[in-house]
Specification:
It is a single chain. By secondary structure, the protein is an alpha/beta fold. Helices cover 29% and strands 22% of the residues. The strands form two sheets. The protein has a 13-stranded mixed β-sheet with strand order 3-4-5-6-7-8-9-10-11-12-13-14-15. It has a two-stranded antiparallel sheet with strand order 1-2. A hairpin with a 2-residue loop joins strand 3 and strand 4.
Length: 375
Amino acid sequence: MKVRYLTHLDQVGGIGEVLDRQELRAKQEVEKTFPFRSNSYYLSRIDWSDPEDPLRRIVVPDPRELEGSGALDPSSEKSYTRVPGLQHKYPQTALLLVSDVCGGICRFCFRKRLFLTEEREVAEDIPACMEYIREHREITNVLLSGGDPLMLPTRGLEAVVRELREIPHVQIIRIGTKMPAYNPHRILDDPELLEMIRRYSTDERRIYVMAHFNHPKELSGDAMRALAALQSAGAVVVNQTPLIAGINSSPAVLSDLLHHLSFIGVSPYYIFQCRPVTGNRIFTLPVEKSYQIIQAAFARCSGLAKRARFIMSHASGKIEVVGRTAQQVFMKYHQAADAKNQDRFMVFHANPHATWFDDYQRHLTEFLPRMHWLF
């Protein structure tokens, strides 16, 4: 199937019949700051008669994106960049930005700075990145990200995968991609991609595909066939999603997503708190509200469907929200950039307005070095 990519709203067929002139102009005004990008496959799945269609909200600009504050790099990714395009935040994991293009631009994207500035953050000197990985034998996992690695030609992607497979201490290669949702035909129509997965995802060292399904409506028949093809080729497929206001922020929708993923053998991995990126305020919920929604969704799920952890990807590490009472919120470092924080358990006063970890730090009541101190 030939899929056409679009970079301006006025390229979307019939958009003028769906939106009145004033509404279209307001959305095009957003494009001047936060670009639009999607494709013919994904847009064809939108119910344009429904202004709250979740896929429409994921990719179509909203004038409210221009309201509010935020930061372009709230997780301080640049401070962990060791070689241009390569981040090393946690000892065992390196992140390699191999593309600054996606099959669509999510309106809540946490790395939207890649689309907003002329400064390129992708790895242009792959040999230098590989040399860094070779020299740091503690790295067992390399995550290929971007942008979307599957926007690369298969031969270009394979060149990176092949070189990583030649490094003995790299056991896992992860490919972070939303293409199974945005354009499953990138997978279904490219036997070379599946052969590449088959060649380099071995019994001893697997390739993991980190999929990004945000709403059950994205799990089309084509999407599920693409996921099955990746699994048949030997990839382990898991899913991660932010919790996004108005898209998957009801327990019924979130549990439906988790259920369907578990049914097709795609393990729910992370549910992220939406990062406080510039333009993301309309998609962000308070942390405690997010936790409540997730727990209500989990109550509807089997154990296999509720293995995801609720995480904030903070500059200091991945902080898991593990519990709450009416007065307190409990968190721990699931991953820490500083080794002294690893597994630290934190107790905060409840703050129903907090949307990020920084909003809690002034209200720390206890900071225990290790979680087992509680027992």
